[in-house]
Amino acid sequence: LVRVDTIESLVDRGRSTEALAELRGMRSSGEVANAEVREAIAGLRTNPAPGIGGLIDALRVYTEDFGARTGIVASFNIDGPALDGTTAPPELPDGGELHLLRVAQEALTNIRKHARAQRVSVTIASQGTDWHVRIADDGCGFDPAGASIPEQSGRRHFGLMMMRERIEAMGGKLSISSRPGEGTVIAASVPGVDNGVPDELEVPTALSEVPSRPTSVERRR
Predict the structure, then answer these.
(1) 134: closest CA among 126, 144, 143, 142?
(2) How confident is the model at residue 47, as a pLDDT?
């Protein structure tokens, strides 16, 4: 409404060029607001069912919706012996489905707002009794050290702090790997309940790679 008042004033004074610039600014603001609302609605509508299957389904649906909304090439992958149908998966900690989903949603929000990425991948994997969720993009990257400096902390860094608090509340760890111009990898790891899965299993190598090209949705069960 303030910008509308400004435009009316400019028109009354015959300053059409400046009024047009304000109108263009309003259009840009409207597009941003529209994206925010659609994202909020998508987030509220995506609630995982209990168990790892519910989390997998919710992550897949949200990743696909994110790609459709933003035009960013988005892939969803699952990996690990506990997800290929050969081993009973460990249980998630209490509230783990919702916390891990919200972490992925916040990471994708930051990618949309800041990363200028063309591709993003969301991967869920099992290792022993631990669960890993990894979100990687090929965007502009940033300096993670700035997240701890109040004067440099914007919305992105506030979101990173919230993600870290969610994961640490479940006894897990959140790692952020990024450099300017080299994309970003956010990896969340949380302990599950031991169902007899061997401890010597290795972390899938896919968890340490930034995607260089689109990959199809992989579901190995």
Answers:
(1) 126
(2) 77
Angle between helices 155-169 and 96-110 in degrees, nearest 10: 160
- In order of 3, 27, 37, 93, 163, the CA distances from 24 in angstroms are 11, 5, 20, 48, 35
How far is residue 57's CA from residue 123's CA, in Å, rounded to a whole number?
A: 12
Q: Find out whether 116 and 139 touch, Cβ atoms under 8 Å.
A: yes
Q: What tokens appear for 131 in the block? A: 């669960």
pTM of the predicted protein model: 0.70
Query: Rounded to whole angstroms, what are the CA distances from 75 to 27, 90, 160?
Result: 31, 24, 22
pLDDT single digits (tens) 49-99: 888 889 999 999 999 999 999 999 999 999 876 676 666 677 888 889 999
Residue 76: partners with Cβ closer than 8 Å, 6 or more residues away:
59, 60, 63, 64, 121, 122, 123, 217
Listing from the earlier edge strand, what are the strands of the sheet with 73-79? 73-79, 119-127, 130-137, 184-191, 173-178
From the number of C-beta atoms within 10 Å of its C-beta (0-12, 13-18, 19+), residue 198 rates as exposed
Q: Which of helix, strand or coil describes residue 196?
A: coil
Backbone CA torsion sign across 73, 80, 171, 47: positive
First-to-final CA distance of the chain: 53
